[in-house]
């Protein structure tokens, strides 16, 4: 058993802490929000490139690797952000103990992850093939 050595500060390794699945989903919801913001900046840069340079058009860059990556990341992040946001909204709306426990159960969390994985694979397939 670990005992604290007094008033000295101690380093807490986040990798040593075992977070529950709901906490990981909440963190991923925030991370995908950040990814969406960065992706939107990428889309704005792409629009700027199309407007400024007359030789660049949307049809000429349609199959470019960077555009495919941007589309895949954006739509996969949006899907996860939307699904986990819907789960958060349902948990806030249904505050009765039984319903709240069902919404925050690990089965619903794994269902969210499986749904997101299937949709993301479909998005990646459509973007790249």
Using brief descriptors, characterize the structure shown:
mainly alpha, 129 residues, extended, 3 helical TM bundles of succinate and fumarate reductases, single chain, 4 helices
Question: Can you walk me through this structure?
Answer:
InterPro entries: SQR/QFR_C/D, Succ_DH_cytb556, SuccDH_FuR_B_TM-su. Its cofactor is heme. With 129 residues, the chain is mainly alpha-helical. Helix content is 71%, strand content 0%. It contains four helices and no strands. The longest helix is centred in the first third of the chain and has 32 residues, at 21-52. It starts with 20 loop residues before the first helix and ends with a helix.
Q: Give the amount of beta strand, in percent.
A: under 5%
Helix content: over 70%
The end-to-end span amounts to 54 Å
Q: What is the name of the CATH class?
A: Mainly Alpha
Average residue-wise pLDDT: 89
What is the CATH homology-level superfamily? Fumarate reductase/succinate dehydrogenase, transmembrane subunit
Quaternary structure type: single chain
Number of helices: 4
Count of the separate structural domains = 1
